[in-house]
Amino acid sequence: MFKFLPILLCALSVPAMASSSRIKDLVTIKGVRENALIGYGLVIGLNGTGDGGGEITNTSLKKMFQTLGLNPQKEVTSKNVAAVIVTAKLPAFGRVGQHLDVTVSSIGDASSLAGGTLLVTPLKGGDGQIYAVANGALSIGGLEKGKKLATTARIPDGGTIEKELEVAFNDKKAIRMALNNPDFTTAARVERTINQELGGKYATASDATTIDVIIPNYYERKVVELIANIENFKVIADAPAKIVINERTGTLVAGGDIVLKRSAISHGDLVVEVKGGAEGSGKAGSMQMMEQTTTINDLVKALNALGTKPEDLISIFQALKQNGSLLAEIELI
After folding, report:
1. What is the distance of C-alpha 22 from the center of its chain?
2. Maximum distance among all alpha carbons in the chain?
3. Cys-Cys link to 205, which of 28, 79, 191, 286 (CB 3.0-4.6 A)?
C-alpha cells in the first residue's frame, strides 16, 4: 500500500497556471448529436450454438420462411439460429448510403454467435421509423477474448443508412451551444470570447449551460464556417473545487483551487496543524506545521511523507470538509 501511495497521489497535483481549451472541447451544439437505433433480427449459420427453439425464435423463423414464399406447417426448430437485438448509432448529418458499425447481442439461450451471419434487419429510431438496415457476417473479436463474450458481436460497416434526419443547418439564424460541464464562470468567458472575436454582441449566456449565438449577416448561409471558427476560439475553463474519492480502490482525485483554512488534524499517531501564514511551517516534535496558504497538494505531500495510507487520507479529507476547513466539494463514487 505504501509503495502505491506516491503514484496514487500524483493525480492530486493541480497546475499553477490554468491552460486554455478550445470551445470545441467544452460545448455541444444543439442538433449535432448521434441517435440510437435498434432492431430485432436472426443470426443463422451457427455451429449448434444457437437458441435451439423458443417461442420468439421459432415464430421468427416461420415468418421469415413465409416472407420467402414458403409455408411450413410444423414449428421450425434449429440449434443453428439465434434471436438477437441489433443496435447502432445514427451520426449527426448521416446521409443515405453511408455505413454504420452495428452491435449484435443474443437474447435467447445461444452459447455463442461465432461464425454466424445476421439476416437483413431493419433498425428503427425513437420515433418508430426505419433509418437503417443491417446484415453481414459477425465478428466476436480475438479468439481468447471472443470466447468470454461470445454472445455479443459486431459487424463493422454492417449497417446502411436508408433515411436521413432533415436538418436545414446552413439556413439557421441562430445556434445554441451547451457546456458539457455547466459553470457560470466558463459560460461568461465563452460569451465574452465569442463577442470579442466576432466584433459585436452576438453571443448571450442565458444560464450556466446555455450560450445562444446569433448568426452575423456576413456569415449568412455560411454557418459551417462560423462554427468552425468559434470551435477554435480559446477559453480558460473554470472548475469547482472538488475532491472525488473511490473508497473501494483508495483513489483520490482533486481538481480546482482547493485551499485549506487554519486547522489542526489529529489522526492516530499523526498530528498536522495548519497555522497562520506569519507563523511559517516546519516540524515541532511529532507535529507537522503548515502555513494557512497550504493547498491540498501541499497537505497530501506532507501526509505522504509521514507514511499516511489512502484510507487515512479519505477520513482526514471528510473530517476537514465537515469541520469547514476544507473549502471543496467531496464526491464519493
Report:
1. 18
2. 94
3. 191
What's the pLDDT at 165? 86
Task: Provide the 8-state DSSP code for 260.
Answer: B
**pLDDT computed for residue 256 by the predictor:** 65
Cα–Cα distances (Å) from 170 to 95, 110, 165, 166, 322, in that order, read 16, 48, 14, 12, 52
Question: Average pLDDT over the chain, rounded to whole?
Answer: 81
Instruction: Count Cβ atoms below 10 Å from residue 187 Cβ, excluding itself.
Output: 25
The arithmetic mean of pLDDT across residues 21-48, rounded, is 92
> Crossing angle of helices 296-305/310-323, nearest 10°?
140
Coil, strand or helix: which one is 210? Answer: strand
CA distances from 117 to 42, 47, 90, 158 (A): 8, 11, 22, 11
Cα dihedral 324→327→329→331 (10° resolution)? -70
Q: Tell me how far apart the alpha carbons of residues 331 and 314 are, in angstroms, rounded to a whole number.
A: 11
**How many beta carbons lie within 10 A of that of residue 149, not counting itself?**
13
By three-state DSSP, how is residue 291 classified?
coil
Q: Tell me how crowded residue 158 is: count the other CB atoms within 10 A of its CB.
A: 25
Cell of 219: 456569415
